[in-house]
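In the previous lecture we treated proteins in isolation. Real proteins rarely work alone, and many bind small molecules. This record shows how such a complex is specified: first the sequence, then the SMILES for pyridoxal-5'-phosphate.
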Amino acid sequence: MSADYRPETICIQSGWKPGKGEPRVLPIYQSTTFKYENSDQMGRLFDLEDAGYFYTRLQNPTNDAVASKITELEGGIAGMLTSSGQAANYYAIFNICEAGDHFICSNSIYGGTFNLFGTTMKKQGISCTFIDPDASSEEIEAAFQPNTKAVFAETISNPSLVVLDIERFADIAHKHGVPLIIDNTFATPINCRPFEWGADIVTHSTTKYMDGHAMSVGGAIIDSGNFDWMAHKDKFPGLTTPDESYHGLIYAEKFGKMAFIQKATAQLMRDLGSIQSPQNAFLLNVGLETLHLRMPRHCENALKVSEYLEKHEKVAWVNYAGLKSNKYHTLAEKYMPNGTCGVISFGLKGGRDVSIQFMDQLKLAAIVTHVADARTCVLHPASHTHRQMTDEQLIEAGVAPDLIRFSVGIENADDIIADLEQALAAI
Ligand SMILES: *Cc1c(COP(=O)(O)O)cnc(C)c1O
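The predicted 3D structure, ligand included, written as tokens:
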């Protein structure tokens, strides 16, 4: 597909490109295996000498079509789907870090990622220093160690809604010879394309806005192709020295700019197997076809709801970067001039207990773990997603104990506001 198409056209037209007589709609290749004419053809695939499908754990045509649509939306050169956003973030780091390595991560991130990086990966010998994304560049640079291999952050953090100064983070990472990995889940490439600001790798929980209908868990990793692994050969031996499990092949030599995704597919997916099911990829593709219509409506509704809440006497505070009063408004205008996302957060006067009472009064907005889909939903992170954290860790992660995460859907904004009004009246 021509790289000149605009995002709206990419959402609809990219990915699956049928030939003569083939299905117009992306088919679900519900097959674990793929047939070849002779033994040598198959052998060459195993040596990575030829490109082709042989086993769905590594690659599947349905998944690849959807990955290529997301890659085009982000302006990258290669991409892959994973079974979840968790798998995407794990693979993105594990593809370049091994036991004994270290990376730097914003402390304002999704709770699941915080647990993965801070606890589980630590057990694998990969350590992570969490830094305040608003800290000075000097403070962030002080966290670098000789074994630091990456910097990781979210475009808009879930649920603290910190807007990242992507350009500043890219400069810091590159000054130290490591890539910047950005989880772009909340902004989506409709509102922000981190590669344009210097990020090297982008990850997604496609479970959120991309799917958009709360139907299927999934993830994606996209590579800009801009990071020169060979220029930092000693730092990234996984990409720049022979892989014994592929007869001594060197990914960065053999695949050049495509090395990162090739390695994550041929090695990590082969060995760890967090593949997205083709059925889920199909559903994700249906979601992607309307992403460009849904995101502006999410943003428009979220702005109306946060303006309403900001004026309400029972509301202690509202956090939404779309609000002029917001700390991150200027950064949001720079990186996301068309809007940020549909997720807002707020606290009520009276604190944690009142917040919980209020949530129980809501009728339209459902209490669900999910966030960022077509239906308005609500969650109290301190009681739910971030339950494992101490109050101290919560505050450090920008998640006040009274914080209500409100994911504004694409219903009529007046109906969402009426629901909030009746719940506020009841407390
Ligand atoms: C939900 C989420 C994840 C994890 O994704 P899953 O698809 O639930 O595994 C990662 N990052 C962000 C920003 C998220 O919101």
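Summary for your notes: Residues 291-311 form the longest helix (21 residues). The chain has a mean pLDDT of 95.
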